Amino acid sequence: MIRFDRRLFGKLAAMSAAGFALPEGKSVAAMAGPKGAAAASSDRGFPQGFVWGSATASYQVEGAVHEGGRGVSIWDTFSHTPGKTFQGETGDVATDSYHRFPEDIALMKAMGLKACRFSIAWPRIFPEGTGQPNQKGIDHYRIFVEALREAGIEPYCTLYHWDLPQALEDKGGWQSKATAQAFAEYAGYTAGKLGDVVKNWMTMNEMSSFIEIGYGSGRHAPGLTLSKQKLAQARHHAVLGHGLAVSAIRASAGKGAKVGSAESVRPIVPAFNSAEHVAAAKKAFVEENAPYLTVMHTGRYTDHYLQKLGADAPVFTAEELKAIAAPLDFQGINIYTAEQVRAADNALGYAIIPKPKGYPTMASDWLTIGPGALYWVPKLAAETMGIKEIYITENGCSADDVVASDGEVYDTDRVMFLEAYLTQLQRGVSEGVPVRGYFLWSLLDNYEWADGYSKRFGITYVDFKTQKRIPKLSSKFYGSVIGRNGL
Ligand code: IFM
């Protein structure tokens, strides 16, 4: 039994005043009940206007790789190279969303989504990466974005989600500073053409993934395993491309444009909530994200990062650092896993705890479960880097979904995952962590890069033979969260 507690009543009133949703529209007074006893806790609501969305990316869903004047991307080349992807699968067709987007938008609308995060394929706009733009590419995205708006869904556009034009890779890709400049030109051009219908722009998705996996381990396109020095330089060119693009978008997108990025940070969480582990986690967050988020928000590489690289450190100028740290309107953060950190008596003051054997994962072996990251990561980003507006631009999981005999998909494991993560997000938001929205990865099962179609991340099941879409139990769960603006 919940007893009446003046502090709880005060907290409810304050939350209500701050715009937090109470269950089913109840007022605080109504909640207090006839004798003043609180009937239920309202601690599970989100602020009014919280942005609920889903996310996808061009190469993972569009297909139609030879249509609309699109040029070749590094993922076309890589996925068609034998031995690079699961069973040689490619994104040639994917979920065919280039043609089927009206159906996808209808799914979003049925769920009550307020926003859609999608990406533009650079080779659809500049088939050769630079030079002659392709009007058909702009037309395609305009039609898509207008259809979203028509459905009452706000577009959030990412300009680079890994499908680099092959022509640029042939000239060095992210190893070359010219790619950073070409990216800024493409970003500025596209924002100029679509700025009247798109207000929220993200430069790049997960620099840390496309550089470290594409040019470091070689598991992703373009499949290179560079030396330490060349890899450090490629990282620098990626953050530089981001910074230059921020200014280019601002110059061309027109009034009301908001600019950010979507980064996959090292998802630091303290071993548990104690003063010493939290202090260690703060140090770790800055240090472990040194080449990406930290330099973007502080305008410098940390001493430790540069010392560790020694002679392999990137070559850069003060002017470039200034460009990289161009102020953002928001920071998008993609979160899947958590890295537990403890206080340590070493030069850094922290240590990352290796995952014990048998640590739980979802269907992808890298996807260890760590819901606390949705509380701690945005909190650490706000507290250590002063970031004032955050979106969770990706969160979700793979699961071994099957269609049941009644035709439904009961992904109770994904529902459990999402409920646990959203609970931690709500905890942070209710404490004032400045997260303004959440984009679930992903609307649809889609092409999961080197894993091909073997890993399903969607809240909508896709039969890749027929392209039939089946909303999973998790899409109904997500729809109910959106509908009540809370858990
Ligand atoms: O599918 C990817 C996405 O493209 C980038 N973030 C992680 C997702 C799941 O692996």
Structural class: alpha/beta
Total DSSP helices: 18
CATH structural architecture: Alpha-Beta Barrel
When the domains are counted, the total is 1
What's the total count of β strands? Answer: 13
As a percent range, the share of strand residues is 5-15%
Distance between the termini: 21 Å
The H-level CATH homologous superfamily, spelled out, is Glycosidases
How is this structure best described in words?
The chain is α/β, with parallel strands linked by helices and 487 residues long. It contains 18 helices and 13 strands. α11 packs across α15 (318-324). The protein is globular, with a radius of gyration of 22 Å. The chain starts with 5 loop residues before the first helix and ends with a helix. Residues 1-41 have low confidence and may be disordered. It binds 5-hydroxymethyl-3,4-dihydroxypiperidine. 5-hydroxymethyl-3,4-dihydroxypiperidine binds next to loops. The site of 5-hydroxymethyl-3,4-dihydroxypiperidine has 8 residues, from loops.
Layout of strands and helices, then pairs:
Layout: H1 6-17, H2 28-32, E1 51-55, H3 58-61, H4 74-79, H5 97-111, E2 115-119, H6 122-125, H7 135-150, E3 154-160, H8 166-169, H9 177-194, E4 200-205, H10 207-217, H11 228-252, E5 258-263, E6 268-270, H12 275-288, H13 290-298, H14 303-309, H15 318-324, E7 331-334, E8 339-343, E9 350-352, H16 373-385, E10 390-394, H17 412-430, E11 435-441, E12 460-463, E13 468-471, H18 473-484
Parallel strand pairs: 1-2, 1-11, 2-3, 3-4, 4-5, 5-7, 6-8, 7-10, 10-11
Antiparallel strand pairs: 8-9, 12-13
Helix pairs in contact: 5-7, 9-11, 10-11, 11-13, 11-15, 12-16, 16-17, 17-18
Residues 57, 60, 206, 334, 394, 441, 448, 457 line the site of 5-hydroxymethyl-3,4-dihydroxypiperidine (IFM).
